[in-house]
Structures are given as C-alpha cells and as structure tokens.
Amino acid sequence: xxxxxxxxxxxxxxxxxxxERAERRKRTxxxxxxxxxxxxxxxxVAWGLSALGGDDAADGPVVExxxxxxxxxxxxxxxxxxxxxxxxxxxFLCSHCADFEAEHGAWLDDRAERGDIVLRFMPxxxxxxxxxxxxxxxxxxxxxxxxxxxxxxxFWAMKSALFGAGYASGDEEPSETALAALAQDAxxxxxxxxxxxxxxxxxxxxARETARERxxxxxxxxxVDGEKLDDVxxxxxxxxxxxxx
Length: 245
Known about the structure:
The chain is α+β, with helices and mostly antiparallel strands and 245 residues long. The protein is 58% helix and 8% strand. Residues 45-54 have low confidence and may be disordered.
C-alpha cells in the first residue's frame, strides 16, 4: 500500500509539473503572438503610408502647376473681358460632384465654349478629410500633372475621364497605373513620374486651405462673380442672371 501511495504521489507530481510546463509554453506562445501581431500592425501602417505617398509627399516642396489661373484651370473657351466668372470647386471622389457634372457640366462647358462665361475648375481634396495625402489627392494630382504638361484642353479631357471612371461611387480607388492610363488617353503619355511622385500634393494642400478661407466647406461649391451660391444646383439661373445684368 505504501508503495502504491508513493507511486500515485509521483504520478500526481509529474502531472502537476507537466501542467506547469504547458502553462509556461502557452504564456510564451501568447506573448510571441502579441509581439508578432504588433510588429505586423506597425509594418502594415508604414506600408500603407508609403502606398499613399506618406508624409514625404505632403511635406515636399510646394510647386504650382503650370497653366493655372487664379488657383484653378480655366476652360479653354475664349470669353471677352467682363464675362461672368464661374468657379467650381470639386473633388473627383465626390459623389455630389459627379451628380453636379451629370446635370450641369455639359451646359457650363457649352457656355464657356461659346465665350459666354469664364469657367474655372478649382481643386478641393475634401474626401481625404484633414489628411495631407490620400486617393482624392492622387486623382487631383494626376489631373494637375496633365494641366502642367499640356494645358487647359488636356486638363478638361482628364477631368471628364476622372469623373467617367466612377471613382466617385466609392467602389474603387484610383491606382497609379489607372491614373497614368487616363492621362495618356487625355494626351499626356509621360505623366507617370509626376503621378508617382505626387508632385503637386503640397500645392493642393495649400489650395485646400485657401478654399476654406473662402468658406468652401463641401463639394461641389460654386461661385459666380465671387459670390458663393447657396444652392449649387441653381447655377444655371445664377449664370443667366449674371449675363443679364
């Protein structure tokens, strides 16, 4: 009996030691998993910032694109001195901007083409919030890469292509490859470096602050002869009133 009790005691002690070792292995595994998870998270954030251009793009030198007039790109139509000036602040990822373009874009283009108005596209990367980079910046930067290289006519073609690409639906974000392809279709085959470098992102951030100083808090926002419209979808009547005055 004594030997049996000793044997049972030895087995119990062995079982206890095994449980302790198992617990130590479990704690070690959990600790390693937590460390690895944290490392993956840090690397993922770093990669994400790099993919978006990161702080490097936002903190680069401010370079104003060529072919910019009063902070925007003017429609190539020739309007006489004194014609009403229509400024439209838009973001290529903005669904309301896409709706505005569908309803009024062609009409405004036609009035500008006929020389009735001065039509000016104004950049506002509002869909990136307060961030200095992001998909809205990428699309806008690509458009101004085109303006810088080939001027207003190519920019207006790129503007139509960006809204036509459907980025405003939110289903897909613009990639560098897709933006370069749209730029090529707009007549600028060599825009890849400008798009990849996000060359005009710092300038776009300054433009965003300038827009906010004009009380532009959403897109689209429309000004006719310097007066902000309360309802952008009343732009036609506002233009007609300006032409009649």
